[in-house]
Amino acid sequence: MNKNDHSFCKKKEETPLIKQYNNIKTKYPDTILLFQVGDFYETFGDDAVKCSKTLNIVLTKRSNIQLSGFPFHSLNTYLPKLIRSGFRVAICNQLEEPKKEKNIVKRGVIELVTPGIAIDESILQTKSNNFLASIHINEKYFGLSFLDISTGDFFITEDENHNILQYITHFKPSEIIFQKNKKMFFEKLLKNKYYTFLMEDCIFDYSFAYEKLTSHFKTNSLKGFGIDDLKLGIISSGAILSYLHNTHHFKIKHISNIKKINKEESMWIDDFTFRNLEILHPLNKEGVSLINILDHTITPMGGRLLKNWILFPLINIDHIKKRHQIVKELCYNNYIQRYIKDKLKNIHDIERIISKIALGKISPREIYTLHKSILAINMIQNKFLSQQSEILKNIGKSFQDCNFISKKIINTIQNNPPNQIEKGKGNVIIKGFSKELDDIRHLYFSQKKYLEKLCSIEQLNTGISNLKIGYNNIFGYFFEVKITKKNKVPSHWIQKQTLINSERYITEELKNYELKILNAEQKIFFLEKEIFNNLINQIVEEIKYLQKNAKIIAKIDVLYSFSKIALENNYVKPIINQSFEFSIKKGRHPVIEKQFISKVSYIPNDITLNKLHQQIIIITGPNMSGKSAILRQTAIIILMAHIGSFVPAKYAEIGLIDKIFSRVGASDNISLGESTFMVEMNETANILNNITERSILILDEIGRGTSTYDGVAIAKSIVEYLHENKLRPLTLFATHYRELNKMNLFLKRVKNYHVSVKKINDNIVFMRKLLIGETNHSFGIHVAKISGMPIKIIYRAKEILKILNKKNSITIKNKENVLFLLNKISYSLKKIYNVYSLPIKDIFNTIEKIKKLLK
Fold first, then answer.
1. Which of 259, 497, 669, 731 could form a disulfide with 616 if both were Cys (CB 3.0 to 4.6 A apart)?
2. CA angle centred on 664, ends 658 and 667, rounded to 5°
3. How many angstroms separate the CA atoms of 31 and 53, rounded?
4. How many Å separate Cα 473 from the centre of its chain?
5. What band does 807 get if pLDDT is binned at 50, 70 and 90?
6. Which residues fall within 8 angstroms of residue 92, CB to CB, at 6 or more apart?
7. What is the pLDDT of residues 684-708, one digit of tens each?
8. Which range has the top average pLDDT, 116-120, 254-258, 422-426?
9. What's the gap between Cα 471 and its chain centre?
């Protein structure tokens, strides 16, 4: 809050309440402070204005103070809205019951909630992690950590500075923290796309961070986690733990591990490729992404793990094959597949339940769902143990025994308990667990019988036959006597209220019983709370067993999902090996084929690439013919194979791929002054600078954003570069430039293919079949016609085309013949020069000049 907003803070105007508020608010200046006043959360000043606008609640003014608030019990309704709007929120509660002799109730902040450390279900996405990121950089490298406090997932890495955004876009953190002296750098890098928080520079200290981590994990060093050499990463991870402590998150035992993100252990897919291939998000709102097709997971843990597998595909062949084998076993065993599906439905989000247990924010009902989840896990474990397949049996053996946790729960908690422990309800802890609790509950719940008995006795003693016992919040219990019977009221009764037709009295016995009831109500609440908290503390010590089982269930869920889509969509188990080639027979695009009503309507295609004979395939064909779909489906099939899924093909043999690069489609970035062509060149440069011998490149229409001659020149030079590069990356190159079809004449590993089109009368039919050889027609006018172009324009375009073809046919033919001969001569001269080192440089240069003039 700014000083200008403190108009209500002047000493002469401060009430004890406002003074208390100001003292607390000064500790949280950049945070909305929800200040409990009785049954409401109130906000003041600038906070009130923000809340009023964000929550659409009334803004009022009292004694020159702006006020805005909502009921105490509505916190779960309004808090998520504030967090989703990017605010930090401090929850300040009354820490004692109001007393008549005290002017001000003791208050304090019990929790600080920010976008990156939220655990409320109404804020979180079920199948997505909610990461808090921390970055520490030096001149060349950065350390980066990601923590999801709602699941306990904690990751750490180090890399070169130019790769920061790659990790950020992969993990999509809800909040990023960094040191204050790097503010300008990160504002420029992140471009206000992420919620950020600046921390003091002293927090980003190696010794401080190292001690913070070893203290939390209760270890002497970090070598056991394999991160001891990640100095910058350790600093970023230590800053995250400091941030948790600063936001009042001290109970974090569920953060029991920290994992290194190792680029060398997973396939690298840049953000351009994820976007271009529509892996996680479609380019259009109405579109469908790959994950929409793959995700048939049933549990939230499975959904989150699937996304993680997609972000980091395996490049360890043994691990990939193991996943494929499990999917195969599940496909062949329909019974176990159905069984798994049925039991997974009864397993709740164990990871987030565990986190709530550790943080002390778990409800009785959620604890009971943990018990039901453990029972379902036991059934799945037993089913796997009973299988003949060793690989399935080993999964069963990998589970931890958590039955003792389940027994603790059912021996303490009633079946289907309420969400909260409420005063006077006594319906959380089972009967027989505590004799003291049972006795007090008996007293409390037998009050009706006691009062009926007492009323009967007083009716006999007084002769007042219509005597009643009532209750209200002002007097408590009372006897109610009709005015006509007033003369029969005993002298020791104390009159409390006179109404039109009756009077109300209290007695010492009635007040003593009332005190017992009120004390019983409080005692039940505190005893149930104490027993429940003891149960939570016992479970906290066993968290690691629950976490391991949650990870196994998540893995089973993803592999079940893979087996389900494999059977439904006729996918095949791919062969993964160490070769430098791949062959896909009758491959299909998993997303596009789902749009066809009939499965036979989709046209499958074959693709073969290798480093010896067919390293680069140049694909030509008109727009809408299916070139881009063939490119995309090839990359997606490779990705699916590496995450452990079966693939949409008749046959697939794939040599291990470590990087997939795509340059498909283009979009302007006008706000940054970048044209379509600039974006295209940036993305292409990124690809060419990062290729390896196991990379595959998917390039579509490179060079189309500039003039034809420039575009052809760029496209040709890129093909030549890829062909002559010693790494020989496998490449699919779709283009409209028919000039590229001649490159196979002097580049032996370049092959021409085209997507077939049939011309029937004056119309064209897209066959969507990939065939060897180049195309001789562009069909541009035909595509314009079927797109709905006015018929006058179509006729005129045909006339102009005829004139141009007539005028240029002889010249073009002569040029092509001469260029063909010159290319052959140049290629021969290169060979001669390489073998004999003859002085033919001038001849070669002259030929190149002639070729340029002809072009």
1. 731
2. 125
3. 16
4. 49
5. low
6. 24, 33, 34, 35, 36, 107, 108, 109, 110
7. 888 888 899 999 999 988 876 666 6
8. 254-258
9. 53
CATH code for the domain defined by 132-261: 3.30.420.110
* pLDDT digits 0-9 by tens, 521-561: 889 999 999 999 999 999 999 999 999 999 999 999 999 99
- Ordered DSSP codes for 191-234: TT-S-EEEE-GGGS-HHHHHHHHHHHHT-S-SGGGT-TT-HHHH
pLDDT digits (tens, 9 = 90+) for 824-848: 666 665 655 554 444 555 555 655 6
Least Cα distance to 686 among 678, 145, 38 occurs for 678
Q: Whose structure tokens read 């180090």?
A: 158
Tell me which architecture the domain covering 295-402+542-569 has in CATH. Answer: Orthogonal Bundle (1.10)
State the Cα–Cα distance between residues 729 and 655, nearest whole angstrom: 12
Which residue from 335, 363, 385 is spatially nearest to 552, judged by alpha carbons? Answer: 385
Q: What are 158's two structure tokens?
A: 């180090």
Q: Is 435-536 in the same CATH topology as 295-402+542-569? A: yes
Inter-CA distances, 394 with 244, 318, 382, 556, Å: 38, 16, 11, 12
Statement: 579-778 belongs to CATH 3.40.50.300 = yes
Residue at token pair 């340029």 = 852
Vertex 244 angle, CA 77 and 254, to 5°: 85
How far is it, in rounded angstroms, from Cα 276 to Cα 686? 14
The dihedral formed by the CA atoms of 551, 553, 557 and 558, expressed in degrees to the nearest 10: 20
Q: Give the whole-number percent of the chain exceeding pLDDT 70.
A: 84
Half-sphere CA count of 412, side-chain side, radius 13 A: 23
Residue (of 343, 116, 51, 415) closest to 247 by Cα position: 116
What are 145's two structure tokens? 């950590």
Q: Report the chain's mean pLDDT, rounded to a whole number.
A: 86
Residues 6+ apart with CB under 8 A from 402: 374, 377, 542, 545, 546, 549
Q: Where are the domains of the chain?
A: 3-113, 132-261, 295-402+542-569, 435-536, 579-778, 790-855
Give me the count of residues in the chain: 855
For 771-789, how does the pLDDT look when each residue is reduced to its tens digit (9 = 90+)? 898 776 655 555 555 566 6
Listed in order, strand segments (DSSP E) in 664-762 are 695-700, 730-735, 750-760
CATH architecture classification, 435-536: Orthogonal Bundle (1.10)
Distance CA 401, CA 472 (A): 52
What tokens does 396 get? 């069963």
CA 623 to chain centre: 35
Q: How far is CA 194 from the centre of its chain?
A: 14
In 64-105, alpha helices (H): 75-84
What is the per-residue pLDDT across 632-652, written as a single tens digit (0 to 9) for each?
999 999 999 999 999 999 999
| Of the candidates 520, 535, 239, the residue with the CA atom closest to the CA atom of residue 364 | 535
Tell me the pLDDT tens digit for each residue of 355-377. Answer: 999 999 999 999 999 999 999 99
> Which CATH architecture does the domain made up of 3-113 adopt?
3-Layer(aba) Sandwich (3.40)
